[in-house]
Amino acid sequence: MSTVTRYLKPLRGLLLPLLLVAAWEFASRQGASHAYAFVPLSQIGAGLSELLASGELWLSTWASLQRTCLGLLYGVLAGFAVGALMALSKVAERLLAPLYHTLRQVPILGLIPLLALWFGSGEFSKVLIVSLAAFYPMTLNTFEGFSHVELRYREVGRVYALTPLQQFTQVLLPSALPSLSNGVLHALAFAWVSSVGCELFLSTGMGLGNLMMNAETGSRMEVVVIGVLCIGLLGYAMNQAFSRFSRHLLRWRNLR
Question: Where do the ABC transmembrane type-1 domain residues begin and end (predicted)?
Answer without folding.
Answer: 61-242
